[in-house]
């Protein structure tokens, strides 16, 4: 029984530290977010197995409902514009910017039906998180082996049309919180051209006003989500991919700078002088 006063004192001290230190509050909230992801993944995996019996895109609706509840705990609000463009009953490639670990909440907020994601293979081994991604139909790519990645993408292109799937890809290839967009990798655009399906760009405003790893900031805030008009690929070939990448990057970058509250940190400005994606 003598341990209880010590435990209570330690808990009180931790709470005070979180209240007084922004860094402590930041790490506490990030730690809780990670713990929630693991706990939700374990619970949702059981539900998915009981309801659908294994790996299927239909499990994404279960995952989406679970993850969308996180925003209430963190005081986040998503203002979605033109969401109907994602709901059209046709296969397509959806591309969006990639900022932080919070992107999962933004993804699940607008995720359309019959939509799967592409993720790096390492995530498959992340315990219950990898399991729930597998059960949700996520396609895993080994980025260290380009031949394997090309095989997966070719298979995915066929399945998109055959099974009426939408595929969500982060074309920047990695998280980016520098206040601008990184150049896009071409894989998503080759996939769309080879399958002859449209590309639907989705742009999330900057998180920096409420989530900043450098400043150890994690407070409540609002994210604006803009769904742009679909970019058709019918009749295009692989030779058209560089121009397609440039068109999409310019449209998404212009929208990102317009809907974000804070100007980008690297000093670049919107306008005719903007350099195209490489």
Automatic annotation (TrEMBL):
Ranges where the record places region Disordered: 259-278
BP GO annotations: phosphatidic acid biosynthetic process; positive regulation of cytokine production; triglyceride biosynthetic process
Superkingdom, natural source: Eukaryota
Transmembrane domains' residue ranges: 33-50, 123-141
Occurrences of domain Phospholipid/glycerol acyltransferase (ranges): 92-207
Extent of the signal sequence: 1-23
Broad enzyme group: transferase
EC number: 2.3.1.51
Alphabetically ordered keywords of this record: Acyltransferase, Lipid biosynthesis, Lipid metabolism, Membrane, Phospholipid biosynthesis, Phospholipid metabolism, Signal, Transferase, Transmembrane, Transmembrane helix
Entry annotated with the keyword Translocase: no
One Pfam family linked to the record: Acyltransferase
Name of the protein described by the UniProt record: 1-acyl-sn-glycerol-3-phosphate acyltransferase
Source organism (scientific name): Cebus imitator (Panamanian white-faced capuchin)
Organism placement in taxonomy: Eukaryota, Metazoa, Chordata, Craniata, Vertebrata
């Amino acid at each position: 029984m003598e341990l209880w006063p010590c435990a209570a004192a330690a808990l009180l001290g931790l709470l005070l530290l979180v209240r007084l230190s922004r860094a402590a509050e930041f790490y506490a909230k990030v730690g809780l977010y990670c713990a929630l992801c693991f706990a939700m993944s374990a619970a949702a995996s059981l539900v998915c197995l009981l309801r659908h019996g294994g790996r299927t895109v239909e499990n994404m609706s279960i995952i989406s409902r679970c993850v969308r509840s996180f925003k209430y705990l963190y005081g986040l609000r998503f203002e979605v514009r033109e969401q109907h463009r994602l709901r059209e009953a046709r296969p397509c490639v959806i591309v969006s910017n990639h900022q932080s670990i919070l992107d999962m909440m933004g993804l699940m907020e607008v995720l359309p039906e019959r939509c799967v994601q592409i993720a790096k293979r390492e995530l498959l081994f992340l315990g219950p998180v990898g399991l729930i991604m597998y059960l949700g139909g996520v396609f895993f790519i080994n980025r260290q082996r380009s031949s394997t990645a090309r095989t997966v993408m070719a298979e995915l292109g066929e399945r998109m049309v055959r099974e009426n799937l939408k595929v969500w890809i982060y074309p920047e290839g990695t998280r980016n919180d520098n206040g601008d967009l990184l150049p896009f990798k071409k894989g998503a655009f080759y996939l769309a051209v080879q399958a002859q399906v449209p590309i639907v760009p989705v742009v999330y405003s900057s998180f920096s006003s409420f989530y900043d790893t450098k400043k150890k900031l994690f407070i409540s805030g609002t994210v604006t989500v803009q769904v742009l008009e679909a970019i058709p690929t019918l009749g295009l070939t692989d030779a058209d991919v560089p121009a397609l990448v440039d068109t999409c990057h310019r449209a998404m970058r212009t929208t990102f700078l317009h809907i974000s509250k804070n100007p980008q940190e690297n000093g670049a400005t919107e306008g005719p002088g903007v350099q195209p994606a490489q």
